[in-house]
TrEMBL record:
GO terms for molecular function: 4 iron, 4 sulfur cluster binding; metal ion binding; uracil DNA N-glycosylase activity. Keywords: 4Fe-4S, DNA damage, DNA repair, Hydrolase, Iron, Iron-sulfur, Metal-binding. GO terms for biological process: DNA repair. This is Type-4 uracil-DNA glycosylase. It comes from Symplocastrum torsivum CPER-KK1. Pfam families: UDG.
Amino acid sequence: MSTEEQMSLFDQSELAASTSANVQPELIPTSAAVPIPSGTYDSIVPIAEHCNVCQRCDLGTTRTHAVVGEGNLNAPLMIIGEAPGQNEDETGRPFVGKAGQLLDKILESVKLDRKKDVYITNINKCRPPGNRVPTTDEVAACKPYLLEQIRLIDPKIILMTGATAVKGLTGDKRGITKIRGTWIEWEGRLCMPILHPAYLLRNPSREQGGPKWLMWQDIQTVRAKLDEVLS
Ligand code: URA
C-alpha cells in the first residue's frame, strides 16, 4: 500500500472510535513515513492495542509482546528506558529482568514505589533481536507512541535511563557519563539523564565516583526536585 493510501486510511475519528473489542489494525499506518499526530489517542489503552499489532518497523515481525508501559497513569515521574529485553518481550512488562529489579531497588532507596509513584516505558516498544540498540529508523517509527504517552500522563519529571533514551527523546547525542545528573529542559519538561541500571550491573563499583555512587547522587537529586515540584 502506498504512503498516500495509508494517509487516507488514517482517519483520526475512526482511530479514536476503536475499542479493545474492536481494534482496527489496518488503520495504523504501517509506514513510519506516515505520522501519528499529537492528540490521536485519548487514553493509554488504544496506544497499547495499536502497539501490539504495530508493523511500523521490522521489530513488529520478531516481537512476542509489545511492551507499552506500566505504572500509575497519573504518576509525577516517568521513566524511559531503551527497549524491551527478553524477559520484557516474554511478559509484555517493562523492566522486569535483572536491570528492572535493580531499578526497583534504586527507586525504593528514595521511597519511590514503582506502582504508585512512577510510570515506566521505553523508547522502543518492541525488543530488538539480540538486545541490540534500536536503529534511528526504529526509534523514529515508534516515537509517536512515546510522545502520546508523555502528553497523556503529563509527568512532572522524566528520567531517561542511558544514552539511547536521551538521544531517542531529546536528540541529544552527548555521552551519558557527561550529562547524567544534569537537568535538561525538553519541550518545557524537566528531564534527568541517569545511567542505565544494566550498566550498573556490569560495573557494580560503589566507590565514590563509581556508577552506583553516581546513581545514588542522581536519584537523590530527582527525589528532592520531585518533593519541590509537588509541594
Ligand atoms: N532495559 C530497558 O531499557 N528497558 C526494559 O524494559 C528492560 C531493560
